[in-house]
């Protein structure tokens, strides 16, 4: 089979000419492409700002051309003056649009993890170190956009909400900061890729079955018959993974150290959530969805739990950090070409 010939840049742009949106995408992906995400603050210098006429600007230029031709044909001195004044205003707007972006510093913020199907909120901080106001700015990221302005010396955090459709890593990707200020005749913009991503957890299964029985810590696989968490046993030093429900708050209120309550049977049983124990008829995503629902239920119950996936195990613990660690393992499951059991 003959190899496909790669289209030249000229052919690519020519094929996109019928649509202004297609031409814009070609320009941003070919002429203005930037390959790798940038984690450090991004400063918009003259090398990163681009200016082209907007749709209104093209209509304005066409109208000036018609006025100039009419002034030449009829020898209208006032027509010449009007054309040159309007043309000067249009050229001045290029400088002002360019200056409206110059010197802005862009810093990637944070994005809290979400479950698949929920909206992910990307935060991007913009710094205006100049002593002038920067009006009519626009920020586009994926399908989201926001309009705002920066006051003199202001730092603003812009939040953009995007839909998450599947688990895994959701990158912010190619983003655009733009302005059409002051007259809307030209569009100045800058393309950048912030080092910003969101972890998307598998959506919990609706009406998931109850949590599996606790297993004996000695590996026997029999349900533990020892008393549960309701039987207080002793106190021990607090650990980061401990649930707030088990903290001895009364001891702390009396000025004592931060301790955690231990309960009889706590050391003798384990809530084991295991990939291999799930029904064989469930596919990969259905298994991850069920494990996600079980992790949330286990955390709500206050019990310690472990998670075992293919080639990876997270040991017994509980607490918010442990929950996010387990959910993150589900979100990124299979990204390293893991082989699943038949």
Provide tags for this entry.
29% helix; Immunoglobulin-like; four-stranded antiparallel β-sheet; 342 residues; five-stranded antiparallel β-sheet; 2 domains; alpha+beta
Number of domains: 2
Largest sheet descriptor: 5 strands, antiparallel
User: Can you count the beta strands?
Assistant: 18
The value of Rg in angstroms is 30 Å
Strand content: 25-35%
Q: Helix amount, in percent?
A: 25-40%
> SSE order in H/E notation?
HHEEHHEEEEEEEEEEEEHEEHEEH
At the first level of CATH, what is the class of the largest domain?
Mainly Beta
CATH-derived topology of the largest domain: Immunoglobulin-like
Stretches where pLDDT is under 50 for at least 5 consecutive residues are 1-18, 215-229, 337-342
- Strand adjacency order, main sheet: 2-11-10-6-7
CATH architecture of the largest domain: Sandwich
Structural class: alpha+beta
CATH homologous superfamily heading of the largest domain: Immunoglobulins
Q: What is the CA–CA distance across the termini?
A: 35 Å
In round numbers, the mean pLDDT is 83
Transmembrane segments: 49-72, 78-98
Keywords: Membrane, Transmembrane, Transmembrane helix
Describe the structure in brief.
This protein is an alpha+beta fold and 342 residues long.
Describe the protein in words.
With 342 residues, this protein is of the alpha+beta class. It has 2 domains: 34-201, Immunoglobulins (Immunoglobulin-like, Sandwich), CATH 2.60.40.10; 215-331, no CATH class. 29% of the residues lie in helices and 28% in strands. It is built from 7 helices and 18 strands. The protein has helices spanning 9-15, 20-31, 55-74, 77-101, 249-253, 284-301, 320-331, and strands at 42-43, 50-53, 105-108, 114-115, 119-127, 134-141, 144-150, 155-163, 168-171, 175-179, 186-192, 197-201, 215-216, 232-237, 259-263, 269-274, 305-309, 312-317. The strands form 5 sheets. Strands 2-11-10-6-7 form a 5-stranded antiparallel sheet. Helix 3 packs antiparallel against helix 4. The longest helix is centred in the first third of the chain and has 25 residues, at 77-101. The radius of gyration is 30 Å and the shape is elongated. The two termini are 35 Å apart.
């Amino acid at each position: 089979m003959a190899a496909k010939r790669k289209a030249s840049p000229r052919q690519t742009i020519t094929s996109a000419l019928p649509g202004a949106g297609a031409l814009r995408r070609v320009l941003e992906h070919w002429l203005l492409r930037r390959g790798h995400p940038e984690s450090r603050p991004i400063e918009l210098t003259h090398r990163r700002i681009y200016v082209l006429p907007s749709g209104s600007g093209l209509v304005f230029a066409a109208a000036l051309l018609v006025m100039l031709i009419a002034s030449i044909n009829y020898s209208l001195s006032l027509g010449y003056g009007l054309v040159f004044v309007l043309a000067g205003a249009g050229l001045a707007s290029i400088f002002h649009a360019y200056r409206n972006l110059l010197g802005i510093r862009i810093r990637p913020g944070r994005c809290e993890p979400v479950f698949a199907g929920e909206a992910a909120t990307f935060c991007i901080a913009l710094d205006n170190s100049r002593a002038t106001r920067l009006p009519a700015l626009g920020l586009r990221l994926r399908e989201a956009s926001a309009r705002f302005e920066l006051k003199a010396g202001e730092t603003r955090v812009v939040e953009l909400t995007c839909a998450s459709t599947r688990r895994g890593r959701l990158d912010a990707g190619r983003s655009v900061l733009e302005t059409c200020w002051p007259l809307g005749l030209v569009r100045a913009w800058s393309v950048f890729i912030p080092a910003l991503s969101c972890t998307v957890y598998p959506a919990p299964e609706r009406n998931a079955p109850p949590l599996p029985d606790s297993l004996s810590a000695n590996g026997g696989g029999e349900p533990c018959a020892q008393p549960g968490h309701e039987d207080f046993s002793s106190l021990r030093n607090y650990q980061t993974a401990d649930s707030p429900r088990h903290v001895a708050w009364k001891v702390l209120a009396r000025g004592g150290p931060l301790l955690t309550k231990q309960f009889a049977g706590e050391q003798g049983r384990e809530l084991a959530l295991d990939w291999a124990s799930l029904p064989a008829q469930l596919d990969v995503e259905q298994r991850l969805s069920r494990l996600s629902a079980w992790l949330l239920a286990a955390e709500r119950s206050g019990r310690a739990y472990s998670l075992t996936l293919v080639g990876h195990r997270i040991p017994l613990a509980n607490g918010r950090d442990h929950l996010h660690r387990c959910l993150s393992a589900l979100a990124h499951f299979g990204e390293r070409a893991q082989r699943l059991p038949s």
